[in-house]
Target: UPF0235 protein D0Y96_08495
Amino acid sequence: MPETAVSRLVKDSRDGARFMVRVTPRASRTALTGVMGAGDEAAVKVALQAPPVEGKANAALVEFLAELLDVPRTTVEIAGGAQSRNKLIAVRGRPAAEIAAKLEEAMGRVKA
Model:
């Protein structure tokens, strides 16, 4: 697989794959909106309809990513940044290449 912005930001970890996201809560719709930054600072941009109140945006993010990546919700967790717009997402039991491919596919649908 050729290296792309998404494939560079999804990393293998001991338990699965990890990647950064930048969340924009209270958006008009929930969707991937692109990639921001470069290198270790790169993140997938995600717009969420949910407000950042009482964990609603975090729950919506986990549900959205699980559906998008076609994995059970229990395998997706916010491993860092629960109270921040910048979050570290862990997807247990899945290799980085698989997660990157699914994110790339979803981003292709956004651009089309």
